[in-house]
């Protein structure tokens, strides 16, 4: 069976982009793949995390996985720091990846900002740890949102170079799975920025635990425009809006795309239903579909995190199963590299 690996950072504020771009897709893949879903706490500490919050956020991401419909009996759910193979393999990949490759990573540049000298070494090495996450399980496919594309290309480069350097096909060349209608959900305040956990404005994102009132308020305040909603004739053969038009109205198309993703319909259908209407009407319908989808997930997350024993059991059991898969891979790598284990 083909193997899936993916991860979400426990850095708080899990949002609609994480859900539509990643977590919701994880659920459906369970039918056809052997799936491993990780809460990447070691990635989280590449920027400062309060230890108590890190614990709470680790449970929150686990609860989101469970509440969204990932079955812990079928799939493996665990947190990264419980399986030491990730850190061990990451070191080897630090010695495989080239500085030139790392220097091209746009996420590091964005996250480190202007004061690059003050960024942690971990933030810089983040992509080699990510490659280790995936390749410790020889995963064939990785479902992610669009923003992770470059990191997955680096993972492929590392696998190819490792195999080439040692003359052995140890690692698969992993395929990214970027699918669904919302691979890049944008901020509700500014259509040129992606929705993110770290945006200082709470109004920029809908979180997975927002209640109906918060969702309604955020959608009401979301930036849109005073033009009417266009008809489906603006879509190209690929079902996407004309790029120039989309660029001219980024916030409008973001809201329309979010609606399509939540209602699980094509964008064309949304445009057919709302053609000629203004955003005031549309926002009411969007609120309804958002609350209908996220409401049950948010309350289940709350139930699971209020009494976290079940969540902790899932992580403990998942880590034991993850180790069973990763340890033989690590031993194979150590042998190939020439690490003596007398
Ligand atoms: P993270 O925690 O930032 O995000 C988790 C997942 O959500 C997707 N995502 C989005 N999708 C659509 N629109 C958005 N605005 C949006 N924001 C986030 C991300 O693409 C991701 O799929 N580096 C990863 C975590 C990671 C990982 C891995 C992923 C660590 N190791 C191995 C896959 C495989 C990250 O920071 O995700």
From TrEMBL:
<dbReference type="Pfam" id="PF00579">
    <property type="entry name" value="tRNA-synt_1b"/>
</dbReference>
<dbReference type="InterPro" id="IPR024109">
    <property type="entry name" value="Trp-tRNA-ligase_bac-type"/>
</dbReference>
<keyword id="KW-0030">Aminoacyl-tRNA synthetase</keyword>
<dbReference type="InterPro" id="IPR001412">
    <property type="entry name" value="aa-tRNA-synth_I_CS"/>
</dbReference>
<keyword id="KW-0648">Protein biosynthesis</keyword>
<keyword id="KW-0963">Cytoplasm</keyword>
<dbReference type="GO" id="GO:0005524">
    <property type="term" value="F:ATP binding"/>
</dbReference>
<feature type="binding site">
    <location>
        <begin position="145"/>
        <end position="147"/>
    </location>
    <ligand>
        <name>ATP</name>
    </ligand>
</feature>
<feature type="binding site">
    <location>
        <position position="185"/>
    </location>
    <ligand>
        <name>ATP</name>
    </ligand>
</feature>
<keyword id="KW-0547">Nucleotide-binding</keyword>
<dbReference type="InterPro" id="IPR014729">
    <property type="entry name" value="Rossmann-like_a/b/a_fold"/>
</dbReference>
<comment type="function">
    <text>Catalyzes the attachment of tryptophan to tRNA(Trp).</text>
</comment>
<dbReference type="InterPro" id="IPR002306">
    <property type="entry name" value="Trp-tRNA-ligase"/>
</dbReference>
<feature type="short sequence motif" description="'HIGH' region">
    <location>
        <begin position="10"/>
        <end position="18"/>
    </location>
</feature>
<dbReference type="InterPro" id="IPR002305">
    <property type="entry name" value="aa-tRNA-synth_Ic"/>
</dbReference>
<feature type="binding site">
    <location>
        <begin position="17"/>
        <end position="18"/>
    </location>
    <ligand>
        <name>ATP</name>
    </ligand>
</feature>
<keyword id="KW-0436">Ligase</keyword>
<feature type="binding site">
    <location>
        <position position="133"/>
    </location>
    <ligand>
        <name>L-tryptophan</name>
    </ligand>
</feature>
<feature type="binding site">
    <location>
        <begin position="194"/>
        <end position="198"/>
    </location>
    <ligand>
        <name>ATP</name>
    </ligand>
</feature>
<feature type="binding site">
    <location>
        <begin position="9"/>
        <end position="11"/>
    </location>
    <ligand>
        <name>ATP</name>
    </ligand>
</feature>
<dbReference type="GO" id="GO:0005829">
    <property type="term" value="C:cytosol"/>
</dbReference>
<dbReference type="GO" id="GO:0004830">
    <property type="term" value="F:tryptophan-tRNA ligase activity"/>
</dbReference>
<protein>
    <recommendedName>
        <fullName>Tryptophan--tRNA ligase</fullName>
        <ecNumber>6.1.1.2</ecNumber>
    </recommendedName>
</protein>
<dbReference type="GO" id="GO:0006436">
    <property type="term" value="P:tryptophanyl-tRNA aminoacylation"/>
</dbReference>
<keyword id="KW-0067">ATP-binding</keyword>
<dbReference type="InterPro" id="IPR050203">
    <property type="entry name" value="Trp-tRNA_synthetase"/>
</dbReference>
<comment type="similarity">
    <text>Belongs to the class-I aminoacyl-tRNA synthetase family.</text>
</comment>
<feature type="short sequence motif" description="'KMSKS' region">
    <location>
        <begin position="194"/>
        <end position="198"/>
    </location>
</feature>
<comment type="subunit">
    <text>Homodimer.</text>
</comment>
């Amino acid at each position: 069976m083909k193997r899936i690996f993916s991860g979400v950072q426990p850095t708080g504020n899990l949002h609609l982009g994480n859900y539509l771009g990643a977590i919701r897709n994880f659920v459906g893949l369970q039918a056809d793949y052997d799936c491993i879903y990780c809460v990447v706490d070691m990635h989280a500490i590449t920027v400062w995390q309060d230890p108590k919050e890190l614990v709470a956020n680790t449970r929150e991401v686990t609860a989101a996985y469970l509440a969204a419909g990932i079955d812990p009996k079928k799939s493996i759910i665990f947190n990264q720091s419980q399986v030491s193979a990730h850190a061990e393999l990451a070191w080897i990949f630090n010695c495989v990846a080239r500085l030139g490759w790392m220097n091209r990573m746009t996420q590091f540049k964005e996250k480190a900002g202007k004061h690059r000298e003050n960024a942690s070494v971990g933030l810089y090495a983040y992509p080699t740890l990510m490659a280790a996450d995936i390749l410790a399980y020889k995963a064939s496919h990785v479902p992610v949102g669009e923003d992770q594309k470059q990191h997955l290309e680096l993972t492929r480069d590392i696998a190819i170079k490792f195999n080439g350097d040692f003359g052995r096909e140890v690692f698969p060349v992993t395929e990214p799975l970027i699918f669904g209608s919302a691979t890049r959900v944008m901020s509700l305040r500014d259509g040129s920025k992606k929705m993110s956990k770290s945006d200082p404005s709470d109004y920029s994102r809908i979180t997975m635990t927002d209640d109906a009132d918060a969702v309604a308020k955020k959608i009401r305040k979301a930036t849109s425009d005073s033009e009417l909603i266009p008809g489906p004739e603006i879509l190209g053969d690929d079902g996407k809006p004309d790029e120039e038009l989309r660029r001219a109205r980024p916030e409008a198309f973001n809201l329309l795309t979010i609606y399509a993703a939540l209602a699980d319909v094509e964008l064309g259908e949304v445009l057919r239903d709302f053609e000629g209407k203004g955003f005031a009407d549309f926002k009411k319908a969007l609120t309804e579909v958002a609350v209908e989808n996220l409401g049950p997930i948010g309350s289940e997350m709350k139930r699971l995190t209020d009494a976290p024993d079940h969540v902790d059991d899932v992580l403990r059991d998942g880590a034991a199963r993850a180790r069973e898969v990763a340890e033989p891979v690590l031993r194979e790598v150590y042998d190939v590299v020439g690490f003596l284990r007398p």
